[in-house]
Amino acid sequence: MDEIYKISSAERVQQLEKELAAQLAELKTEIEGNGVLQGSLDCSVRLPKDIDYFRRERELALKKCLQVAEAKPLVIQADVLQREAESCLKREHTPENLPLLLHQKQVAHIMQEYSDAVQRAQRLSSARENFLTGRENPTNLVTLEDLTIYTQWLICHLHSLKAVHNYLRRICLGILNYFRSIERTLTINTSGLALNAGHLISSAEDSCWVNAAKGGIGAFGGLESHSYVHYTPVDYKVHSVQFMEFAEVENHDDFYTVEDMYVHTQDQRGAFVIYDVALQDLKELEEQLLLVATQYIERERGKALKASSNSNKNSGWAHGSVDRSAVLLDLWTCETGFLENKQQLLDSYFEAYQHALVWEERFALAQAITDVMSRRPRIDFHLGYFVNLYKDECACLRLHTQLVRDILNQQIDTQRDYNHKIWRDGPKGRIQEFGFPPYIVPKQLIAVNNSLTALKNIYLLEFHPSLGLISLIPKALGHILQEFQQICRPKTAQEAIQLEKQVLHLALDTWLTLESPGSFYGTQTQKELFTEVLVEDPSLVREIAVLALKSVAKEEQNKGNKEKQTLILNIFSRLLELLVLRHRLIEAAMESAQMGRLYKEFAGEMGFDEFHLYLRPVYFEFATHKEKTDQPAPTFITSLERQDSSVDRYIPSTLMLSIQDIDNQIGKFSFRTRESILQILLNPYGMENLQIALACQTSHKNLLLVAIQQATFCPMVQPTRSKGIKANMSEIVF
């Protein structure tokens, strides 16, 4: 549809645009005639933008709305691997996109360093205008402070990415009411809240990603969004958050306390509340439990009747042997324990939700919390009783909770140490501190959600936005469980629950025994690549950037201001690219190490020795003479490895980077000292060598992944399970 519709194609629209262009030109002439120069600091009235700028903004907004919703595309793994390999050789930061990237960053963080960010974002907004109109950015658009602030923010951001019965009914009601209160909070935060003609309607504008996740067309705001009519996106962003400055804005969140196992919910005024939907939930839960209890009672009654008829005894009162009250008591006891375990898991995700700042991460966490609230036990009526099923379901929830809590608590500890490291003696109020995460004042520990916090108690002004990434855990667990379900094919609810419990055990054991990122590699590689003392400290990296500029400035003394500004952009774009390449290379190396361990496990099952992972051709100078050279090359590696003269069957003591196994010169780089980083930064081929190293490591990782997937689905009659990770997997095979 967006290809058919042409913007401003109607004659009436074109006439209106001509009239508007004439009015803008007249207004611009009048302003300039009054002695106001474009860009003057003394002017409070801005010069109007060109008509082409507003046409282009309107065109982008309409094209998003004209996109037709369609089915999700089929994800082909080969295409994903190909795109990943191609991205290794592309640059994310260039002098051309840095102004636009910095402008987007300042808009996204408009509330942080408010006045300074607004000033910078307004100045950098011309990058978007130039992008839309096809003009080049002036060389003096970006200042050294802009680049420094963005560099410091990127370092901190990449670090955070490294390395979820009369008495029982009352408890259940409190938990159900708590769930509904959390759901209310998520609804207000996700969709907004406004009163229109006596009805509550959504007042928040979704991002494209959130709109698509809700089933929309993936357009930002839709046709009712008129952000493009503002002078710049900065003005629109500032306008949309000004409501926070008014004292009349009331808190919409509820408060929660726990007393004698009862969860009490209080509104913003302190009144204890029970939502009517919670009472309805309790009524529906009672009906479901009565149906389940009736099914088991009737089943026991049928067994008693059959036994009585076989023994020729009176069966009229056989069902009287079933203790109905005991069945109901057991059912309510199990249901209470199930809801309590659900609450503990939900609390972990909800506390992470309080820290998340990225809108997509908050929406994903809200979805994960909603999935936990809607989870119900899987009843298998083929079993004699339901107690063991409830126990297994509760065990799955506890394992999931332990995994999420351990990950979140470790991330909090890591970020606290990092915050203390980069702030050193505390904030001084200087501009060099912009781009740092907020300083943590170690005073007044609080619980974010309940009186009994699910995670570590945090300080009053302590925020960790990286906790929003915890939304990836349920997605990863769901993917792992799906893979094992395809392999094991559980036939009953009990087998499905047991499979999920074993998968959660495996995930938790893997997390608890997870080794440090560089432990698989040699000592030299750990020092040169994985060390974070220098390259992950924003202050020290800023000093390296200054040294690089001074080093180059000595050679470029006779050049003009335009050339010097271009030089600054080139240096910082290379520095930012260097930081991102190192981060991606470490991630690829970690994944390669994990894939290599699994590869050796499967190779062992197939009868191959450990050297199978490290097979490589013998170097020419060490090759032996062959009598018959006209023989065709072997098709399979299994036949090639038997020829000792053709392949090198070696087992290294530690892993090496893939590039180091191919080319020792390209693989020589170091992030350990200032001098070594400057050498990569200023060397014309330093960045290209890092890109090649990343491409090699990514290709190696993807090849291992494909080999493992093929080995996983190979039919084996009687697989020989080896010790280690596969020993745990063998327990889930039925």
Summarize this structure as a short list of keywords or feature phrases.
734 residues, mainly alpha, two-stranded antiparallel ribbon, 8 strands, globular, disordered C terminus
Descriptive account of the structure:
- This protein is mainly alpha-helical and 734 residues long.
- The chain is built from 23 helices and 8 strands.
- Among the domains are: 283-512, no CATH class; 523-620 and 639-730, no CATH class.
- The two termini are 52 Å apart.
Amount of beta strand: under 5%
Rough shape? Answer: globular
| Biggest sheet strand line-up | 1-2
- The unreliable regions are 36-41, 217-224, 243-248, 312-320, 716-734
Mean pLDDT, nearest integer? 78
Continuous helix count: 23
Helicity level: 55-70%
Q: What is the count of β-strands?
A: 8
Task: Present the secondary structure layout.
Blueprint: H1 11-33, H2 51-65, H3 77-88, H4 98-108, H5 114-124, H6 126-133, H7 144-161, H8 168-191, E1 194-196, E2 199-201, H9 208-213, H10 233-241, E3 255-259, E4 262-266, H11 276-310, H12 324-355, H13 359-373, H14 387-423, E5 445-446, E6 458-459, H15 472-488, H16 493-512, H17 523-530, H18 538-553, H19 561-605, E7 616-617, H20 637-640, E8 647-648, H21 674-682, H22 686-712, H23 725-730
Antiparallel strand pairs: 1-2, 3-4, 5-6, 7-8
Helix pairs in contact: 3-22, 4-5, 7-18, 7-19, 8-11, 8-12, 8-13, 11-12, 12-13, 12-14, 14-16, 15-16, 18-19, 19-22
Brief description of this entry?
The chain is mainly alpha-helical and 734 residues long.
